[in-house]
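Translate sequence into C-alpha coordinates.
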Amino acid sequence: MNRIEALFANRENGEKVMSLFLTAGYPTTNDTASLVLGCEAAGADLIELGIPFSDPLADGPTIQYSSTEAIRQGITMEKIFSIVEEIRASSDIPLVLMGYINPILSYGVSSFCKRAAEAGVDGLILPDITLEEAALIEEEARRNGLAQIHLVAPNTSDERMREIDRRSSGFVYCVSVTGVTGARDGDEVARSVEKFIDRVNTHVTRNPKMVGFGIKNHEDAQRIAARADGFIVGSALIETIRNTWPENGWEEELFDFVRRLKQGT
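Result follows.
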Protein backbone atom coordinates (compact mmCIF):
# COMPACT_ATOMS: atom_id res chain seq x y z
CA MET A 1 0.00 0.00 0.00
CA ASN A 2 1.54 3.32 -1.06
CA ARG A 3 0.93 6.66 0.67
CA ILE A 4 -2.08 7.56 -1.49
CA GLU A 5 -3.80 4.23 -0.87
CA ALA A 6 -3.05 4.49 2.85
CA LEU A 7 -4.53 7.99 2.98
CA PHE A 8 -7.90 6.84 1.65
CA ALA A 9 -7.88 3.59 3.60
CA ASN A 10 -7.27 5.35 6.92
CA ARG A 11 -9.90 8.10 6.69
CA GLU A 12 -12.25 8.35 9.64
CA ASN A 13 -16.02 8.85 9.51
CA GLY A 14 -16.15 9.67 5.82
CA GLU A 15 -13.87 12.71 6.20
CA LYS A 16 -13.20 14.41 2.87
CA VAL A 17 -9.61 14.30 1.63
CA MET A 18 -8.24 17.74 0.76
CA SER A 19 -5.70 17.83 -2.06
CA LEU A 20 -3.91 21.08 -2.84
CA PHE A 21 -2.10 22.05 -6.03
CA LEU A 22 1.11 24.09 -5.85
CA THR A 23 3.24 24.99 -8.85
CA ALA A 24 6.78 23.74 -8.25
CA GLY A 25 9.13 26.72 -8.19
CA TYR A 26 6.46 29.37 -7.55
CA PRO A 27 6.72 31.99 -6.22
CA THR A 28 10.41 31.03 -5.98
CA THR A 29 12.23 27.72 -6.18
CA ASN A 30 13.29 28.03 -2.54
CA ASP A 31 9.70 28.43 -1.29
CA THR A 32 8.07 25.25 -2.54
CA ALA A 33 9.14 22.73 0.11
CA SER A 34 8.27 25.05 3.00
CA LEU A 35 4.89 25.82 1.42
CA VAL A 36 4.09 22.10 1.17
CA LEU A 37 5.04 21.52 4.80
CA GLY A 38 3.04 24.57 5.92
CA CYS A 39 -0.01 23.48 3.94
CA GLU A 40 0.25 20.03 5.50
CA ALA A 41 0.33 21.57 8.98
CA ALA A 42 -2.73 23.65 8.03
CA GLY A 43 -4.74 20.57 7.03
CA ALA A 44 -3.70 19.41 3.54
CA ASP A 45 -3.96 15.64 3.13
CA LEU A 46 -2.34 15.33 -0.29
CA ILE A 47 -0.23 17.67 -2.43
CA GLU A 48 -0.10 17.92 -6.21
CA LEU A 49 3.10 19.57 -7.41
CA GLY A 50 2.68 21.11 -10.83
CA ILE A 51 5.50 20.62 -13.33
CA PRO A 52 5.77 24.00 -15.09
CA PHE A 53 5.42 23.78 -18.86
CA SER A 54 5.33 26.41 -21.58
CA ASP A 55 2.08 25.12 -23.15
CA PRO A 56 -0.20 24.04 -20.26
CA LEU A 57 -3.28 23.02 -22.22
CA ALA A 58 -5.54 22.24 -19.25
CA ASP A 59 -4.63 25.28 -17.16
CA GLY A 60 -6.31 28.64 -16.95
CA PRO A 61 -4.54 32.01 -16.64
CA THR A 62 -3.73 31.74 -12.93
CA ILE A 63 -1.75 28.51 -13.13
CA GLN A 64 -0.32 29.52 -16.52
CA TYR A 65 1.08 32.63 -14.82
CA SER A 66 2.66 30.64 -11.99
CA SER A 67 4.22 28.19 -14.46
CA THR A 68 5.67 31.03 -16.54
CA GLU A 69 7.16 32.61 -13.43
CA ALA A 70 8.66 29.32 -12.26
CA ILE A 71 10.23 28.70 -15.68
CA ARG A 72 11.57 32.27 -15.74
CA GLN A 73 13.25 31.66 -12.41
CA GLY A 74 14.95 28.52 -13.69
CA ILE A 75 12.88 25.59 -12.41
CA THR A 76 13.93 22.27 -13.92
CA MET A 77 12.83 18.68 -13.53
CA GLU A 78 15.91 17.92 -11.47
CA LYS A 79 15.13 20.84 -9.14
CA ILE A 80 11.60 19.50 -8.74
CA PHE A 81 12.99 16.12 -7.68
CA SER A 82 15.26 17.90 -5.20
CA ILE A 83 12.22 19.73 -3.79
CA VAL A 84 10.46 16.37 -3.32
CA GLU A 85 13.53 15.02 -1.51
CA GLU A 86 13.57 18.08 0.75
CA ILE A 87 9.90 17.48 1.62
CA ARG A 88 10.52 13.80 2.22
CA ALA A 89 13.22 14.61 4.78
CA SER A 90 10.47 15.62 7.19
CA SER A 91 7.08 14.53 5.78
CA ASP A 92 5.23 11.48 4.50
CA ILE A 93 2.36 13.45 2.94
CA PRO A 94 1.34 11.85 -0.38
CA LEU A 95 2.91 13.74 -3.29
CA VAL A 96 1.64 13.65 -6.88
CA LEU A 97 3.37 15.28 -9.83
CA MET A 98 0.89 16.90 -12.21
CA GLY A 99 2.08 18.00 -15.61
CA TYR A 100 2.33 17.35 -19.30
CA ILE A 101 3.94 14.56 -21.24
CA ASN A 102 6.48 16.59 -23.26
CA PRO A 103 8.87 17.37 -20.38
CA ILE A 104 8.72 13.72 -19.34
CA LEU A 105 9.50 12.52 -22.86
CA SER A 106 12.39 14.98 -22.95
CA TYR A 107 13.73 13.64 -19.64
CA GLY A 108 13.14 10.05 -20.74
CA VAL A 109 10.13 8.08 -19.51
CA SER A 110 12.08 5.31 -17.80
CA SER A 111 14.56 7.71 -16.21
CA PHE A 112 11.75 10.03 -15.10
CA CYS A 113 9.71 7.30 -13.38
CA LYS A 114 12.77 5.84 -11.68
CA ARG A 115 14.00 9.23 -10.46
CA ALA A 116 10.53 10.28 -9.31
CA ALA A 117 10.11 7.13 -7.25
CA GLU A 118 13.58 7.49 -5.75
CA ALA A 119 12.83 11.08 -4.74
CA GLY A 120 9.58 10.07 -3.02
CA VAL A 121 6.82 10.82 -5.54
CA ASP A 122 3.67 8.69 -5.12
CA GLY A 123 1.70 9.30 -8.31
CA LEU A 124 1.30 11.10 -11.63
CA ILE A 125 -1.47 13.16 -13.23
CA LEU A 126 -0.93 13.88 -16.93
CA PRO A 127 -3.98 15.68 -18.36
CA ASP A 128 -2.77 15.74 -21.96
CA ILE A 129 -2.41 12.00 -22.57
CA THR A 130 -5.44 9.92 -23.45
CA LEU A 131 -5.97 6.32 -22.44
CA GLU A 132 -4.83 5.33 -25.91
CA GLU A 133 -1.53 7.17 -25.38
CA ALA A 134 -1.04 6.26 -21.73
CA ALA A 135 0.90 3.13 -22.67
CA LEU A 136 3.81 5.55 -23.17
CA ILE A 137 4.26 5.67 -19.41
CA GLU A 138 1.92 3.20 -17.69
CA GLU A 139 4.29 0.26 -17.45
CA GLU A 140 7.22 2.32 -16.20
CA ALA A 141 4.99 4.04 -13.66
CA ARG A 142 3.68 0.69 -12.43
CA ARG A 143 7.19 -0.78 -12.26
CA ASN A 144 8.28 2.09 -10.04
CA GLY A 145 5.22 2.10 -7.79
CA LEU A 146 3.77 5.36 -9.10
CA ALA A 147 -0.01 5.67 -9.14
CA GLN A 148 -1.37 6.56 -12.57
CA ILE A 149 -4.25 8.98 -11.94
CA HIS A 150 -6.56 9.53 -14.90
CA LEU A 151 -9.28 12.14 -15.36
CA VAL A 152 -12.99 11.96 -16.10
CA ALA A 153 -15.17 14.93 -17.07
CA PRO A 154 -18.87 15.62 -17.66
CA ASN A 155 -18.42 14.78 -21.34
CA THR A 156 -16.76 11.40 -20.63
CA SER A 157 -18.96 8.51 -21.76
CA ASP A 158 -20.09 5.83 -19.31
CA GLU A 159 -18.05 3.17 -21.07
CA ARG A 160 -14.93 5.29 -21.02
CA MET A 161 -15.42 6.05 -17.31
CA ARG A 162 -15.36 2.32 -16.62
CA GLU A 163 -12.16 1.91 -18.63
CA ILE A 164 -10.53 4.90 -16.91
CA ASP A 165 -11.43 3.38 -13.55
CA ARG A 166 -9.86 0.09 -14.60
CA ARG A 167 -6.66 1.77 -15.79
CA SER A 168 -6.29 4.18 -12.84
CA SER A 169 -4.65 3.74 -9.47
CA GLY A 170 -4.54 6.01 -6.43
CA PHE A 171 -7.75 7.84 -7.31
CA VAL A 172 -9.74 9.13 -10.26
CA TYR A 173 -9.63 12.89 -10.83
CA CYS A 174 -13.16 14.13 -11.53
CA VAL A 175 -13.06 17.38 -13.50
CA SER A 176 -16.21 19.09 -12.28
CA VAL A 177 -16.75 21.31 -15.34
CA THR A 178 -15.51 21.28 -18.90
CA GLY A 179 -12.81 23.81 -19.71
CA VAL A 180 -9.54 24.85 -18.09
CA THR A 181 -8.60 25.21 -14.43
CA GLY A 182 -9.76 28.25 -12.48
CA ALA A 183 -12.01 29.34 -9.65
CA ARG A 184 -15.67 29.60 -10.69
CA ASP A 185 -18.98 30.53 -9.15
CA GLY A 186 -19.84 27.80 -6.64
CA ASP A 187 -23.45 27.48 -7.78
CA GLU A 188 -22.31 27.04 -11.38
CA VAL A 189 -20.01 24.19 -10.39
CA ALA A 190 -22.53 22.57 -8.05
CA ARG A 191 -25.21 22.45 -10.75
CA SER A 192 -22.76 20.84 -13.15
CA VAL A 193 -21.46 18.35 -10.59
CA GLU A 194 -24.65 16.72 -9.31
CA LYS A 195 -25.59 14.68 -12.36
CA PHE A 196 -21.95 14.13 -13.23
CA ILE A 197 -21.13 12.62 -9.83
CA ASP A 198 -24.18 10.36 -10.10
CA ARG A 199 -22.67 8.90 -13.27
CA VAL A 200 -19.18 8.77 -11.77
CA ASN A 201 -20.38 6.83 -8.73
CA THR A 202 -22.18 4.38 -10.99
CA HIS A 203 -19.25 3.70 -13.28
CA VAL A 204 -16.11 4.43 -11.20
CA THR A 205 -16.19 1.78 -8.49
CA ARG A 206 -12.58 0.61 -8.00
CA ASN A 207 -10.92 3.90 -7.10
CA PRO A 208 -11.64 6.82 -4.77
CA LYS A 209 -13.04 9.90 -6.49
CA MET A 210 -11.58 13.40 -6.06
CA VAL A 211 -13.40 16.43 -7.48
CA GLY A 212 -11.46 19.41 -8.81
CA PHE A 213 -11.68 22.56 -10.97
CA GLY A 214 -13.59 25.60 -9.73
CA ILE A 215 -13.45 25.20 -5.93
CA LYS A 216 -12.52 28.41 -4.11
CA ASN A 217 -13.76 28.08 -0.49
CA HIS A 218 -14.88 25.63 2.19
CA GLU A 219 -18.55 25.87 1.24
CA ASP A 220 -17.81 25.07 -2.40
CA ALA A 221 -15.63 22.14 -1.35
CA GLN A 222 -18.20 20.56 0.96
CA ARG A 223 -21.09 21.01 -1.48
CA ILE A 224 -19.22 19.86 -4.56
CA ALA A 225 -17.48 16.92 -2.88
CA ALA A 226 -20.54 15.79 -0.89
CA ARG A 227 -20.75 12.45 -2.69
CA ALA A 228 -17.09 12.07 -3.61
CA ASP A 229 -14.10 11.12 -1.48
CA GLY A 230 -12.51 14.54 -1.47
CA PHE A 231 -11.74 17.73 -3.32
CA ILE A 232 -8.85 19.45 -5.10
CA VAL A 233 -8.03 23.16 -4.94
CA GLY A 234 -5.42 24.76 -7.18
CA SER A 235 -6.13 28.11 -8.82
CA ALA A 236 -7.58 29.68 -5.66
CA LEU A 237 -4.42 28.70 -3.80
CA ILE A 238 -2.11 30.11 -6.48
CA GLU A 239 -4.19 33.29 -6.63
CA THR A 240 -3.77 33.72 -2.87
CA ILE A 241 0.01 33.52 -3.27
CA ARG A 242 -0.05 35.92 -6.22
CA ASN A 243 -2.08 38.47 -4.26
CA THR A 244 0.12 38.42 -1.13
CA TRP A 245 3.71 37.56 -2.10
CA PRO A 246 6.21 39.04 -1.22
CA GLU A 247 4.50 41.07 1.52
CA ASN A 248 5.37 40.31 5.13
CA GLY A 249 3.22 37.46 6.38
CA TRP A 250 2.24 36.18 2.93
CA GLU A 251 2.90 32.56 3.87
CA GLU A 252 0.69 32.78 6.96
CA GLU A 253 -2.10 34.28 4.85
CA LEU A 254 -1.81 31.26 2.56
CA PHE A 255 -1.89 28.81 5.46
CA ASP A 256 -4.92 30.61 6.96
CA PHE A 257 -6.66 30.15 3.62
CA VAL A 258 -5.84 26.44 3.70
CA ARG A 259 -7.22 26.11 7.23
CA ARG A 260 -10.46 27.81 6.15
CA LEU A 261 -10.73 25.49 3.14
CA LYS A 262 -10.52 22.50 5.44
CA GLN A 263 -12.45 23.67 8.48
CA GLY A 264 -14.57 26.61 7.36
CA THR A 265 -14.62 30.00 9.10
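Note: The chain is about 45% helix and 15% strand.
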